[in-house]
């Protein structure tokens, strides 16, 4: 069985078009994580707070970020996919975040194969309500977990997201490959 983190390329034309490996589903509280040793998606935990993922959430293959994990990506979707689904997506923004003292930024992307998102090219194209919902989710999703502190630190545009993806690819090459 292929390892979706190590065997799948970052994207067909990274950083402009990436692959997002979905772990967590829009509308759910289950926190799934891809376990490269199995390889497969496992239930890591159920979110302690009464919140749910606002969009599908996962990681970018062949990436490694400053928090020593694959680079996180949230894909704006109308309908949830499934854990392990690979979505071709375009990065459009990035949310800056601190998770227990570690930089844990999130790429925001849109599926390339959904015409309902063709008009979203950059941060300014994302509705403010969508940005507020994503921010609120990450600001509160660990509130009931003992000793966990998360701070959202604002938004950056598509250029910053693409630069961060290239940084994550470089770190992957240096530390993992």
From TrEMBL:
Its main location: cytoplasm. GO terms for cellular component: cytoplasm. The keyword Mitochondrion does not apply. One of its GO terms (molecular function) is magnesium ion binding. Keywords: Cytoplasm, Hydrolase, Magnesium, Metal-binding. Substrate binds at residues 31, 45, 57, 141. It is found in: Cytoplasm. GO terms for biological process: phosphate-containing compound metabolic process. Mg(2+) 1 binds at residues 67, 72, 104. Mg(2+) 2 binds at residue 72. It catalyses: diphosphate + H2O = 2 phosphate + H(+). Gene3D superfamilies: Inorganic pyrophosphatase. Pfam families: Pyrophosphatase. The keyword Cytoplasm applies. Homohexamer. Belongs to the PPase family. This is Inorganic pyrophosphatase. It comes from Halorubrum californiense DSM 19288. The lineage of its organism: Archaea, Methanobacteriati, Methanobacteriota, Stenosarchaea group, Halobacteria.
